[in-house]
């Protein structure tokens, strides 16, 4: 009887391991689609398909967003659009709190959507918050020259995310010689952080090596 109960428990756990990620993913995706679909509510009734259809079509908000992004991209590439964007940013820059939020969000969006030097380059270990304790971080590039001019070594920008919410964290400037390279991908590192260390990447301690020569190009 005990073996039968243990088998039922194991099968139930195996099922939960599969169902929980599926349900959470569907829940988040549905919430995002519903939020984006609400963009259609700001359209005039004559332009909103919901006015003429007896039912609501899910996903129209995504199409609206793509069309709006395309039109905005075309506008900001010409003289009139650049002037309008300049006036908008000038107005935002005069509002103390709004200008900080707008500037930060714009830079984050560029870092996420635009391929280039602003993306996470690789995973590293740094001794933080004190010596002897290591934190997992993402190298973002060399620190600004003006910020590292008074130090005796090249400073590297490292973003140390928090667990289980990796969207928040700390930006640290670490001497290059104090960075320990880790041979795992950025995706595997995110899984490790999100799970609080319960999901381990396919790597061994032998893959962790410390190098003194420049590592960020």
How would you characterize the overall build of this protein?
The protein has 6 helices and 6 strands, in the order H-H-H-H-E-E-H-E-E-E-H-E. The protein has a 6-stranded antiparallel sheet with strand order 4-3-2-1-5-6. The longest helix has 36 residues.
What are the main properties of this structure?
3 domains; alpha+beta; 6-stranded antiparallel β-sheet; 6 helices; 217 residues
Which range does the strand content fall in?
Answer: 15-25%
SSE topology string: HHHHEEHEEEHE
Low-pLDDT stretches: 203-217
What is the CA-based Rg, rounded? 24 Å
Termini separation comes to 62 Å
Average pLDDT metric: 77
Strand-pairing-aware structural class: alpha+beta
Characterize the overall form.
flat
Helix fraction, binned, reads 40-55%
Instruction: Please indicate the count of domains.
Output: 3
Describe the main β-sheet briefly. Answer: 6 strands, antiparallel
Query: Looking across the biggest beta sheet, what order are the strands in?
Result: 4-3-2-1-5-6
Helical segment count: 6
Number of strands: 6
User: Oligomeric state of the chains?
Assistant: single chain
Write the layout of secondary structure elements.
Layout: H1 2-37, H2 60-75, H3 79-93, H4 96-113, E1 122-127, E2 134-142, H5 145-148, E3 155-161, E4 169-175, E5 180-182, H6 186-194, E6 208-210
Antiparallel strand pairs: 1-2, 1-5, 2-3, 3-4, 5-6
Helix pairs in contact: 1-2
């Amino acid at each position: 009887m005990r073996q039968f109960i243990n088998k039922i428990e194991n099968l139930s756990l195996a099922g939960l391991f599969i169902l929980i990620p599926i349900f959470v993913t569907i829940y988040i995706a549905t919430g995002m689609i519903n939020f984006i679909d609400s963009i259609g509510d700001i359209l005039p009734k004559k332009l909103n398909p919901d006015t003429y259809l007896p039912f609501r079509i899910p996903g129209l908000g995504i199409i609206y967003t793509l069309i709006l992004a395309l039109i905005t991209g075309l506008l900001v590439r010409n003289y009139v659009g650049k002037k309008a964007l300049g006036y908008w940013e000038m107005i935002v820059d005069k509002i103390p709190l709004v200008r900080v939020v707008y500037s930060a969000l714009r830079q984050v969006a560029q870092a996420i959507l635009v391929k280039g030097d602003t993306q996470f380059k690789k995973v590293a270990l740094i001794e933080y918050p004190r010596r002897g304790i290591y934190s997992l971080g993402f190298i973002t590039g060399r620190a600004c020259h003006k910020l590292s001019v008074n130090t005796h070594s090249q400073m590297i920008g490292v973003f140390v995310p928090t667990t289980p919410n990796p969207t928040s964290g700390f930006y640290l400037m670490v001497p290059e010689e104090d960075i320990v390279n880790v041979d795992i991908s950025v995706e595997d590192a995110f899984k490790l952080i999100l799970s609080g260390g319960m999901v381990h990447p396919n790597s061994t301690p032998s893959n962790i090596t410390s190098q003194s020569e420049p590592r960020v190009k």
